[in-house]
């Protein structure tokens, strides 16, 4: 389905910025850290480590080291343990009591917080994606500020990945999603875009122990 969306590059962003002034607006980072790790086994996968650091903490650093204005983490499964893993980081927390109903409930919670805080856009990053480069998040933010697209996801070697940025015009739709999906359908149905990237981390999510071992070798 990726081919349904127009492709853009960093050069397109630069061209747009040179043609007109960048639009203002705050971009919130939303860390989706509520899932129950059903395919990983008994242990919460977000607390598994790469180089001595929990996956969820590494994902938090991706957002914190980027140019998003603020980071919130949506908690659900084992919230206290995940909160402890993010201790001393500049991250705010909200809880999703409906997390067992699927990813959409965390996306809905994040969109609601973004709207309530007056954010103009939000970048949604799953907490089980520890290898995304902060520069990729910055590029998504640049797409928004350059007014190139109001919804954008990264694509690596023709595969769409995460995180995904949505402008506030999509917050209502995000609050209405259902099931174990995020904002995929909203992205595909919008005048969105795919940002070409060389960041393989946008495809690296940890669902199983095999995924974890593979990521540890990368």
What does this structure look like?
Helices cover 33% and strands 21% of the residues. The chain contains 8 helices and 11 strands. It has helices at 10-19, 55-64, 79-85, 103-116, 134-145, 171-174, 184-189, 209-217, and strands spanning 6-8, 27-33, 49-50, 53-54, 70-75, 92-95, 121-126, 151-156, 159-160, 164-167, 193-196. The strands form 2 sheets. Strands 1, 2, 5, 6, 7, 8, 9, 10 and 11 form a 9-stranded mixed beta sheet that branches. The chain has a two-stranded antiparallel sheet with strand order 3-4. A hairpin with a 2-residue loop joins strand 3 (49-50) and strand 4. The chain starts with 5 loop residues before the first strand and ends with a helix. The relative contact order is 0.21.
